[in-house]
Amino acid sequence: MSGILKGVSIRGLEVFETLAQTGSVGEVARRLGMSPPAVSQQLKNLTAAVGMPLVDQTKRPMILTPAGHQFLRHVDIALTALRTGQRDLGELDLSDVSSLRLGIIEDFENEVTPGLTSDLAETMQNCEFRLSTGPSHVLLQRLEHNELDIVISAEGRSTLPGVIVHPIVEDPYILAVPRGTDVSEGLESLNHLRFLRRDQSQMMGEQIERALARTGMTHPNWFEMDSNQSINALVAARGGWTITTPLSLLRGARFLRAIDARPLPIEPFSRRIVLYANKDWNAAVPAQVANIARDLIETHFIAPGLARIPWLTGAFRTLDDD
Q: Which residues face 70 on adjacent strands?
């Protein structure tokens, strides 16, 4: 096959991408502001242009065919490039900003933070820039004390007064166990392994402990760590199991071959990563910073994460402003 696929539209690619995330024509229609028949027609046109089935429509929710999974990788690349180009046309202008104090959750220090700061630096001609990374609870405290202007962190239990909030990503909690571990009996299947706790002073640790408390089960406090990489390493070495999120698991890429990601056998819950900004900021600036962050997270985490853990489709996703 050569040249551009005849009859393929950007809208059709967006429909296919969203259907891969949700498995539902109705949900695609809702998210994209289309009618269900229009969604079905776009999918039909795309299938005809490609020349082979991309979606198994006999399943509920719908799932991609092997060809669909392969095609999705190229669609993700194409749409990311188009969105990046659109973002660059409306490029953030910080030329008149004299100072920016930005805090970013440490989950993003290897992939998202360098790209985001590079984009910001291009327009900060006369700006005194300060970047801080760290755990969410520390960044939020600094924002509350007016030591930071904009923070990208996990969403707190309560909204800080006088801040602008932009949702960025939904990051559901999942089970991480040594490769090949049987979890058919739920958490009780893991009684022979140690539970690897997160530091309970951190927001993730606090959320996980509240969820476990609701089950009525107790787990001895053998290991409690604030190092995500150490937790991933211990799971991979068959030293225990943990509750984590796709973002946290994907940060430890070198350990993934020895870890199985499984759905939580308890009531699902998730954390949200959001952007908080001091209310004194021009609303356009935080909104554009949030858009840049979403693009980078989609490229470095969502797309590769769903390729590796496809059952997270629809749950692990970037979020738009309401």
A: none
Phi-psi region of 284 (alpha: psi -120 to 50; beta: other; left: phi over 0): alpha
Stretch (H or E) spanning 128: strand 128-134
Name, in order, each residue with C-beta under 8 angstroms of 320's C-beta and a sequence gap of 6 or more: 167
In 3D, which of 320, 316, 315 has the Cα closest to residue 290? 320
- The bridge status of strand 259-262 relative to strand 128-134 is unpaired
**pLDDT tens digit sequence for 65-115:** 998 888 888 888 878 777 666 555 455 666 677 788 999 999 898 888 888
Pair 121, 92: CB distance under 8 Å: no
| DSSP single-letter state for residue 319 | -
Non-local (6+) Cβ contacts of 282 within 8 A are none
The model scores a pTM over 0.90: no
The pLDDT value given to residue 147: 93
Q: What is the mean pLDDT of residues 225-230?
A: 87
Please tell me the predicted confidence (pLDDT) of residue 2: 46
- Mention every residue, 6+ apart, whose C-beta is less than 8 A from residue 299: 80
Which stretch of 152-161, 242-251, 259-268 has the lowest confidence by average pLDDT?
Answer: 152-161
Q: What is the CA radius of gyration of the chain?
A: 21
Distance CA(181)–CA(248), nearest Å, equals 20
Contacts 24+ apart (CB under 8 A), 282-288: 283/164, 285/92, 285/94, 285/97, 285/150, 286/150, 286/164, 286/166, 287/166, 287/321, 288/87, 288/90, 288/92
Sign of torsion, CA 201 204 209 211? positive
- What the block records as the tokens of 312 is 């997270």
When pLDDT is cut at 50, 70 and 90, the band that residue 174 belongs to is very high
Whether 38 has a pLDDT exceeding 90, the answer reads: no
Query: Tokens 């759905």 belong to which residue?
Result: 263
d(CA 71, CA 283): 37
**Cα 132 to Cα 104, 118, 195, 249, distances in angstroms:** 6, 15, 31, 22
